[in-house]
């Protein structure tokens, strides 16, 4: 069985039968083997991109759960601090400081999560972009080969 990914299982060995079938058509100027090899590379690139996207999703989910846990711990500490503050004026001043710190932390966390998502998307897109470039080069080479055969 070929390497699997979390989205679907593909047994690449089944493509061998398609190769045999396509070779019987004998299309002039078409190298069926190279076309099938190119398509197999496309599938591998998409599988790799999906794997990177899935791993990125997992990283974001893990970080979000860490942020939620930290937030609950910090909230508990904040409530304790507010209860310990003396006069109502002290409580208001302390509450303003704590709200400011909480807001800054929330922005920092949002920025961090956005960077994680962007990094994951970029890595997956890079795999696909590379394969598209390779595919276009393969096409150019194939066309050149057909021209030189004539």
UniProtKB/TrEMBL annotation:
<feature type="domain" description="Phasin">
    <location>
        <begin position="34"/>
        <end position="132"/>
    </location>
</feature>
<protein>
    <submittedName>
        <fullName>Phasin</fullName>
    </submittedName>
</protein>
<dbReference type="InterPro" id="IPR010127">
    <property type="entry name" value="Phasin_subfam-1"/>
</dbReference>
<dbReference type="Pfam" id="PF09361">
    <property type="entry name" value="Phasin_2"/>
</dbReference>
<dbReference type="InterPro" id="IPR018968">
    <property type="entry name" value="Phasin"/>
</dbReference>
């Amino acid at each position: 069985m070929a390497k699997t990914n979390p989205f679907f299982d593909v047994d690449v060995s089944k493509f061998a039968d398609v190769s045999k079938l396509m070779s019987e058509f004998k299309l002039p100027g078409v190298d069926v083997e190279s076309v099938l090899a190119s398509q197999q590379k496309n599938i591998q690139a998409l599988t790799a991109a999906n794997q990177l996207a899935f791993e990125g999703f997992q990283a974001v989910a893990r970080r979000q759960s860490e942020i939620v846990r930290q937030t609950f711990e910090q909230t508990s500490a904040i409530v304790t601090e507010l209860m310990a503050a003396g006069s109502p004026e002290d409580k208001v001043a302390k509450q303003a400081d704590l709200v400011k710190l909480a807001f800054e932390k929330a922005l920092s966390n949002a920025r961090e999560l956005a960077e994680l998502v962007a990094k994951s998307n970029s890595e997956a897109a890079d795999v696909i972009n590379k394969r598209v470039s390779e595919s276009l080069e393969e096409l150019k080479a194939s066309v050149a080969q057909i021209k030189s055969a004539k």
